[in-house]
Design brief:
Elements lengths: L2 E6 L2 E5 L13 E9 L2 H7 L15 E8 L11 E4 L9 H4 L32 E4 L2 H4 L1 E2 L6 H8 L1 H11 L7 E5 L3 H12 L4 E5 L3 H9 L3 E3 L4 H4 L4 E6 L4 H9 L1 E9 L12 H6 L3 E4 L4 H13 L7 H4 E7 L3 H9 L7 E5 L1
Helix pairs in contact: 5-6
Bound molecules: nicotinamide-adenine-dinucleotide and zinc ion (2 copies).
Amino acid sequence: MRGLVLAGIEDVRYRTGLPDAVVVQPTDAVVRVTAAGLCGSDLHPYLGREPVRWGVVPGHEVVGEVVAVGTEVTTVEVGDRVLSPFTTSCGHCGPCRRGLSARCVSGRLLGWGAPDAPLEDALHGGQAELVRVPLADGTLVVVPDGVDDATAVLLCDNLPTGWYAVERAGVAAGTTVAVVGLGAVGLCAVSAAFALGAATVHAFDPVAARRERAAALGATAADPSEAAATDGLRVDAVVEAAGPAPAQRFAAGLAAPGGTLSVIAVQTDEAFAVPPVLAYDRNLTIRTGRAPVRSLLDRLLPRVLAGELVAPTRVVVTDPAVPLEDGPATYARFAAREGGLVKAILRP
Ligand SMILES: NC(=O)c1ccc[n+]([C@@H]2O[C@H](COP(=O)([O-])OP(=O)(O)OC[C@H]3O[C@@H](n4cnc5c(N)ncnc54)[C@H](O)[C@@H]3O)[C@@H](O)[C@H]2O)c1
Ligand SMILES: [Zn+2]
Ligand SMILES: [Zn+2]
């Protein structure tokens, strides 16, 4: 099959002749990928911030058609149009039953291999023609009619993740919210905040083109380095969807006494960037963690279909149909935040 491979730092390669993904376990499904998202999380290994096994097909946001199932799979069949959350999940262990599918005891991250494990132990991802999805029954979701591929890609990760971030920040009707970092996750958080009834959303990013997108969603957008934009601003609910330590420190400073800082950016550091004295002085609650997308979709898909949560597909997905061959160049553009690229979708 054709696919991308992460060969090293800033080294994504387009390859033909990769071994086809096949059913290995009776609980697997194989999906022919029609749309695969490129995510800020793909940049951590790409830029060397997160150690991984090289030689693995990246990609954890997968939409496509089921082309094979193992003998024990019962909830999807060949021909179904499905999406896969970015982690697999069994659906019946303790964490899965508690709504924490991202911490399933047998769950795995698509498109990831441990740096010190053999290549066979890696789970190849969806930036390829075919992908093997383990635990298909507890993982895959049939895409409802009327949900387009780009929106389905947002449902694999960014939209539920943005929702999780604002929900954990305590956003409710009338809340004033701040969102720091306006990539696909931050922009989805802006949409989710309004869907939950937020009165005002203050949105921060150093990149002007990304601020304009947040403004298009109704947020009041500013450059975090502009003192006037933040002077005296104190809000009850802060979402940090940026990643770098200075962004986390900045986000904490926006919290009102008794407020909540919801850190949704992936954490790779040993310590929080929030000074304990600040956390103490603000009686701050800090929440963080991986979004349990499969669990969240049980609640969010009905809201999306009812129009209560509008997926910000047109605002977020800037590059909706990138050929697989252009994957390496698109990774480079994304990492450099060039050409207004916020969210690219590969079309194998
Ligand atoms: N917790 C989860 O389950 C989960 C799921 C998906 C993604 N993520 C993480 O969420 C984060 C965002 O993902 P994304 O796809 O939107 O990434 P992205 O890289 O496209 O966006 C990050 C944004 O943060 C901005 N930024 C950097 N420094 C800043 C600062 N000091 N102040 C304000 N903004 C700043 C950047 O300009 C950029 O627009 C990443 O860390 C990603 O790995 C977490
Ligand atoms: Zn993602
Ligand atoms: Zn489980």
